[in-house]
Design goal:
six-stranded antiparallel sheet, 18 strands, about 35% helix, alpha/beta, globular, single chain, eight-stranded mixed sheet
Length: about 400
Amino acid sequence: MSIIVQKYGGTSVGNADRIRNVARRVIAAKQAGNDVVVVVSAMGDTTDDLIKLAYQITDKPNAREADVLLSTGEMVSSTLLAMALENMDCKAISLSGTQAGIQTDSNHGRARILSINPGRIVHEIKEGNIVIVAGFQGITKSDDITTLGRGGSDTTAVALAASLGASVCERYTDVEGIFTADPRVVPEAAKLKEISYDEMLELATYGSKVMHPRAVEMGQIYSVPILVASSFNDRPGTLIHGGLMEIRNKVTAITQDMDVAKITIVGVPDMPGIAASIFAPLSKAGVSVDTIVQNASIKNITDLTFTVTKGDVEKALQIVKPIAENVGACECVADTKLAKVSIIGSGMQNTPGYASTMFSTLFAAGINIQLITTSEIRITVIIADDRANEASRALHKVFELEK
């Protein structure tokens, strides 16, 4: 028998009827001849509700206690799914992240998985059980509960699939797969039959919310195929994998990220060590910096621009402003009304013409490009946020992704 790992998101287990629907899908996978391990997220908006409740108690929730609190959301959905399966005459058992052997570092709120001891899961499978694991959580060497941050349940599922040698990790959610663009923005967007790990990692990093980058990265490292499909119908989903891909348009998809802010330090002395003095404190404070652009030096003076998430702007400014003053920079300015729009496709690698087509299309639409960043399979522009949807639709059309 092969092992498959199924992961169900919060909307899929949002109420009792949906939990029973998930139970029927899990039973069907078991009856098809598979050993099944299921990872579940918290029901609906449970995690957000628990966070709000914590802040009603205190302005600064203790990080350790917050993790214990938030871990209860997945415990509720995992136990309810186990009950639903038992009620349908199917043997099942729910396990916490701790019971499932998921060990993490001690970085509360965004812990990383260090190792998994799947012994308990393997034992329960041999006993004939469907195993339901609470996602998003683990335990430290000192026996403290941790949570894995945004997308943590996806990461749990892929990590378990890798440790169990599963044939596939199936991620079920409220969307039918990976599309050439967000269908809410581009109605003509087409569902992809398959996509490479590299392409999906770029999509997840630069705006797509369907998969978390850490989960995709883990799938690539351990060669775990990941199927993304809907839990509300049986239509084929999208397979994320590293095998041979079908021939298609060299641009695979368009994605956009509205959570972008730009900070510019004006009049920075152009001398060794300045960049380190700015970015090292940001890193230490946990502020993630993305695009970095330094203008050409004129009379040993330059401007330094970088992007962060909108939620990190004030924190970043508090760190950067004193440093800018110390090095003799003129001022720090921020712009939070920005978005990233990217074209992504492994077929673009070493092929000319894609950047010029992208820039010409945006020019024709009267959309100003503020910053540009690239990788081997991605071109990203930073533009005004109120033009992002228009840009996505124009680029989707010019690259004929609806076909």
